[in-house]
Each structure stands twice: as structure tokens, then as C-alpha cells.
Amino acid sequence: MIELTGVHKSFGSIEVLRGVDLSAKAGTVTVILGPSGSGKSTLLRCINHLEKVDRGTVRVDGELIGYRQNGNRLHELSERQILKQRARIGFVFQNFNLFPHLTALQNVAEAQISALRRTTSQAYEKAHELLELVDLWDRAGAYPRQLSGGQQQRVAIARALALDPKLILFDEPTSALDPELVGEVLDVLRDLAARGTTMIVVTHEIGFAREAADTVVFMDDGRIVERGRPDQVLDNPQHERTRAFLSKVLV
Amino acid sequence: MLLPSVIGMSVLTPPRQRTAAGDELVVVPARHPWRWAATALVLVLLAQFTHGLVTNPGWDWETFFGYFLEKTVVESLLLTLELTFAGAVLGFLGGIPLAAMRLSSNPVLSVVSWAYIWVFRSVPLLVQLLFWANLGYLYETLQVGIPFGPGFSFPTVNLISSFGAAVLGLALHEAAYAGEIIRAGLLSVDSGQHEAAAALGIPKWRQFYRIVLPQAMRAILPNAANLLVNLLKSTSIVYILAIGELFYQVQVIYGRNGRVVPLLMVATVWYVILTALLSVLQYYTERHFARGAVRNLPPTPFQKLKAAIKR
């Protein structure tokens, strides 16, 4: 389903990703843990080509992301083709990034209309269904600033789901939330995981990783240090750096 | 932790407190005697000025009212509006590509836009207008065709009338400022918005006019309104090209009858009225684009008035 091989990425002289290999099967939940600055978010952003990979390849459903292969050459795709690929990969941001001038309903409907060319009535019907799924059916007409952080993030998740994505990437979806609002967003994530949505989640919520993840990946310094089932990685880490990180997080 | 809670208390404590003995403490608002003195002074000055307006024969209100709605004045007013409209529309149409070029990652486009804005902000409008009016001396013919190849040519003098020169000068001048205003507006939109739109696969053009532009408008509008009001008044400069706009026309009239002050007042009052109309337009346009930016829109002055009457 998802296949990353030898992904490298530098910003200027700083090498953020130093050869990452990662694969995940359809319907599985992968949680990426790691200290800040370890390259987790960059890795996520490389998967939907928000960041261009310097070296290595990203494939989703066998399809090369951002490039077209011709013999041993990779031709960069046009903006339009990349946008088409992105429409099938959901992305949920740490800061929600809802469109503040559109209502919750319009936020969820917008890309359905413009990226998938659904009719307005189809899009709004789907948007209503999804707002019901994230338990916000009664706030469809509200603007993002009239919603709490947790509600905004649930709208953002509905917005990502609206395009029927093959997989959804979550970039620290609860990090910008007040502690008492984290639960409502994690509930939605658990619900999605239970429905067999393919997800890659960057988070610091160890509890979520333990109960919802199929695979936990620990990253440090631009590399994957350790990976395995949650109980293996979280309860019996093999690597020194994983142990050091977990001991700080699990106080 | 201590400081916020102390500040919070001073704000949130109700005005009445009880002492240990149970007596009620009464809050006495501070007195501001100087405020009263300043108010009185300003009112006296205002009264004096109003008195002067009414009693000083120099204002010559009879002449003022005689010419305020006079046919040639109204016609010249329409010309002023035409110049403003043409200058604003062409100016902002020119400003959009200038802003886009300036923000482009293509260094040639960016530098060309920068240079255009530099030049047209540097040259005084008056000087520029005279340049355009005299373009015929500089380039006798204009040619349309393949660069450095064959083409059709026109005599420049026929092509640019004095009205054309005025519109051209105003529009090119406006475009430089409009370009900067639009650029500032586009920059004010959070980069997360671009990212979210890109991550959702929304097509590039739709990203611009559906997601970015409506948010940029919040920052663009107040400055654009300023520019528009400025343009309205700047049209008075084109009198130098002998175009019969409002200011030119009142000059013609007072040149004939010698009543300078009342006729300048005719022009002044019209400029004030037009600016007031633009301000109303600005208020409602800004309100339109404020959707979602504030939690709840405050009522308009009109709605406040209606509510006050109902009560």
C-alpha cells in the first residue's frame, strides 16, 4: 500500500531525513514516535509531496508520488498531476488549517467540488454525513473561529475523509489542543482505525499508540531506529535511544 | 501564575465589597475636570467657526448654491467619476499581475515588477501626465507587429487624446500602488492555508480565488479604499491637461466671475460627498469579507439605529 524506500531530504545544509524505508499495508495504523526535530513531520509531508524528496521514492498503491519513471529517470510531475495525487491522500494538520471564511460544511464540501468534481448537492450531502460521523452535525453552519480547537480538528478530519482517501496522514493532530479536548479527537481516530482506514499518525499520545496502532515506528535524527508491534516497541524497546525517549515521555 | 490572577481579580471583582465588619464599600468613579475643560474649549471654537460660516459674506453661500447643481458643474463631476472609475479599474487590473510577478519565483518577473513599481512610485503624477500628453513628440509612430519585424504603424498623436493620456497616467500610477497593496494582502494569508488547499488537491486557480483571495481581501480593502479616495482627489491634477473635470470647471467659472471661494467650496463639498459615499461602500464591503474572521459581526450603524428606535 505505502512503500517508502531510501527517502532523503535536506533543508539547506541540514539533513532532516537520512534514508528512511517504511511500508504499511492497507487498513493498518502506523504510529510514528520520536523527539522533536527527528524528521517525523517532514517524513509525513514527503508522503503527499508537500515536501519534495531529494533522493528515494514514495509509492502509494504502487503509484509513484510526485514523479513519473522513465527507464532510470524520474520526471517531476506537473503541479496539476501532483494535485490529483494529493486529492487521494488525506492530510490532517497540527494547526487544523481550516478555511476561516468558510463554514464547517463548506470546508468539508470545497475540495469535493473542486478536486473531485462532485456536484454541489452530492458534496453537501457527503459533508453532512461526515459531520455526523465526527459528531458535529449541529455545527455545520458555524465558522471555524466559532468552534473549539477539538471541534475544529474534527471538522478537519471530516474534510480529509471527504475525498475518500486511500490513506490519511495525521501530523500531531492533538498537539495544539487543550488537554481536555484531546480525548474527543482521539475518539474519532480510534473510530477510524476500527473501520479499517489506512492511517499514518505522528503523535506524542503513547496511550493511543498502544491501543490503536498495528505498527509503532520510532524515529530519531532522520532515521528509523526501531519498529514493531506496539507492545514490542513500547514495553520492550531494543534500542538505547528509544528507551531514553520513552522514559521521558512515560513519566 | 501570580500576576495574571491578580490582574484577573481587579477586573472581575464586582464594584461592591464588604469589609470584615459588613459595611458596604461604595466605588466612586475618578473625576476628570480637564476633560470637561477641553470639551468646553472645543465647543466654543466650533461655535465660532460655524458662526463665521454663516455671517462672513466672503463665503457667499448664494453663489455656492447657485453653482452647486449647475449643469456644467454636474457634467464635470461625471467626468471626474469617469476618470476615477477608469483609473481604479485599470489600476487594479494592472496591480494583480504586478503583485503576482513580484511574488513569483522567477527572478526576471520579480525584478521587472519591482522596477516598474519603483519607477511609477518615484515619478510625480503631474510630471507623468505631462509625459503621456507629450508622447507624440517622443515617439511619432506606434507600431503593432512582430518584434523587430514588420507591422502596422499609427501616428501617436492620433492615438492618445488628452483624456486618454489622463486615464493612462492615472492607471499606470495606480497600478504601482495597487500592486503593492495586493501583494501585502496575499502575504498576509497564513501559509497553512496554501498548504491545506494544496494537500486537498484543490486546483491552483481555485486555490487562489476561493481560498487565498477572500482572506487577502481583509488586508487589501482598507488600503484599496485609501487608494481609491486618493485617486478621486488626484483626478483634480489632470486639469493641467485642460480636461473639463470638476476642479478644471470651477476654475473656468471663477475665472469668469471672480468668485473664487464659493466655487472652490462647490468642488470641495462634492469631493467630500463622494468620499463619504466611498466610505459607506468600504464599510459594507469590509463587513462582507469579515465573515468568519470575527466570531460574530457587530451590528451596522443602521441596525443599531433600528434597535434604538424599537427600544
Automatic annotation (TrEMBL), chain A:
Keywords: Amino-acid transport, ATP-binding, Cell membrane, Membrane, Nucleotide-binding, Transport. InterPro entries: AAA+_ATPase, ABC_ATPase_HisP-typ, ABC_transporter-like_ATP-bd, ABC_transporter-like_CS, MetN_ABC_transporter-like, P-loop_NTPase. It is an enzyme of class 7 (translocase). It is found in: Cell membrane. It comes from the Bacteria. GO terms for molecular function: ATP binding; ATP hydrolysis activity; ATPase-coupled polar amino acid-transporter activity. It catalyses: a polar amino acid(out) + ATP + H2O = a polar amino acid(in) + ADP + phosphate + H(+). It is a peripheral membrane protein. GO terms for cellular component: plasma membrane. Its EC number is 7.4.2.1. Residues 2-246 form the ABC transporter domain. This is ABC-type polar-amino-acid transporter. It comes from Actinoplanes italicus. The lineage of its organism: Bacteria, Bacillati, Actinomycetota, Actinomycetes, Micromonosporales.
UniProtKB/TrEMBL annotation, chain B:
The lineage of its organism: Bacteria, Bacillati, Actinomycetota, Actinomycetes, Micromonosporales. One of its GO terms (molecular function) is transmembrane transporter activity. It is found in: Cell membrane. This is Amino acid ABC transporter membrane protein (PAAT family). Gene3D superfamilies: MetI-like. GO terms for cellular component: ATP-binding cassette (ABC) transporter complex. One of its GO terms (biological process) is amino acid transport. It comes from the Bacteria. Keywords: Amino-acid transport, Cell membrane, Membrane, Transmembrane, Transmembrane helix, Transport. Belongs to the binding-protein-dependent transport system permease family. Residues 77-282 form the ABC transmembrane type-1 domain. Signal peptide: none annotated. The keyword Cell membrane applies.
